[in-house]
Write a structure and sequence with these properties.
Layout lengths: L1 H20 L5 H22 L8 H25 L5 H8 L3 H11 L6 H24 L4 H25 L2 H4 L3 H24 L8 H29 L1 H4 L2 H16 L6 H18 L7
Helix pairs in contact: 1-4, 1-10, 1-12, 2-3, 2-9, 2-10, 3-7, 3-9, 4-6, 4-7, 4-12, 5-7, 6-13, 9-10, 12-13
Length: 291
């Protein structure tokens, strides 16, 4: 529960930080800088622990797939979605991660969907639906922008879900997590850089203090630390339960959006937040991991 709480609190705060990163620096360059920092930190920590930073051909292929799905497609899409909709709404839509995680985990990993997990999922998703309805109603950018933002976010959700399934495979367990994640992050940073250069030109950096501090926070805390904890949980409790962090994250994101983006709570949104948290409690009270 402690790693779960830490990951949830960290990722709940990232949405508002990502929002601040959008502006002078093109999204793909911000993503590239983030995972360059994260990858260097991960490999430095692996070296400090005395772990070998060596992969065979299969390990490189695994790291490459993880890089493309998790550290390239997922984050490039999320950063772009926040140009169309509020950070709170992006977080709400991303909470749907638990649905493809549960379905793909059942298909490819043979993980069972117990009754308690299904009930908790139903309650939590009802809460997320209420939050979504409220956000769609009050979005100042209009329904067309909302649909674009939601569609981009859903594409990011699917990329993240497939990456989650990869982490639950036996192949992932054959390689040390920290150096493998570090290599995947650096590969992702390189791909992000190629995308950024091809779309927007040479590197751009904003020397504003808030941007630089946000970049360090996203690279070190929200990536190097949070992904290590999250993927460790994923291997232990399964893809469906691990994805429940994405259910409570929107509530935290919306609280921060209230403070910094002028978000206003309604009875509908408050009811959705309560349902999401209640569903989370139901699902996490299951005594056994889903296998």
């Amino acid at each position: 529960m402690v790693p779960f709480a830490i990951v949830t609190l960290i990722w709940g705060s990232t949405w508002i930080v990502i929002r601040d990163q959008i502006g002078i620096v093109p999204p793909s360059w911000s993503v590239s800088y983030r995972f360059l920092i994260a990858g260097v930190v991960m490999l430095g920590y692996a070296a400090y622990r005395g772990e070998r930073i060596v992969l065979d051909a299969r390990g490189w292929a695994f790291a490459g797939a993880l890089a493309v799905l998790q550290f390239c497609l997922n984050f490039n899409l999320v950063y772009r979605a926040e140009a169309h909709i509020t950070s709170g709404l992006v977080a709400v839509v991303f909470a749907l991660l638990l649905v493809p995680n549960a379905i793909l985990g059942r298909i490819f990993l043979g993980q069972q969907l117990g009754r308690q997990l299904l009930v908790g999922s139903g309650v939590a998703m009802a809460g997320v639906a209420l939050l979504f309805v409220h956000e769609a109603r009050v979005n100042p950018n209009g329904p067309a922008e909302s649909l674009i933002g939601v569609a981009i976010t859903m594409a990011g959700v699917m990329a993240a879900s497939i990456a989650n399934i990869l982490q639950g495979t036996q192949t992932a367990k054959k390689y040390p997590m920290i150096p493998t994640l570090g290599i995947a992050m650096l590969i992702g940073a390189a791909i992000d850089g190629v995308i950024a250069w091809s779309l927007t030109g040479p590197p751009v950096i904003e020397l504003r203090t808030g941007y630089l501090i946000g970049l360090l926070y996203l690279g070190v805390v929200a990536s190097a630390i949070a992904f290590t904890l999250y993927f460790s949980m994923l291997r232990i409790i399964g893809t469906a339960k691990a994805a429940y962090s994405s259910v409570i994250v929107p509530v935290i994101a919306m609280l921060l959006s209230t403070m910094f983006e002028g978000y206003r709570w309604s009875p509908l949104a408050a009811g959705g937040a309560v349902l999401a948290m209640f569903g989370l409690v139901i699902a996490l009270r299951a005594s056994r991991p889903t296998r």
